[in-house]
Amino acid sequence: MMNRLLICLLLSLICFGLKAQDEDIDKKPRLNNPSADRLVFEFNHDNWINKPDNIKTRWYNRGINTYVSFDIPLDKNGHVAFAPGAGIGVNNVYHDGIITTDSTNVTYFEPIQSEIDYRNNKLTTAYLEVPIELRFRSKADKNNNRWKFAIGLRGGYLLNAHSKYRGPDLTQSTNRTVKIKDLRLPNINKYRLGSTVRVGYGTFNLVGFYSLTNLFETDLGPGIQQFSIGLCFNSY
Question: What does pTM read for this prediction?
Answer without folding.
Answer: 0.84
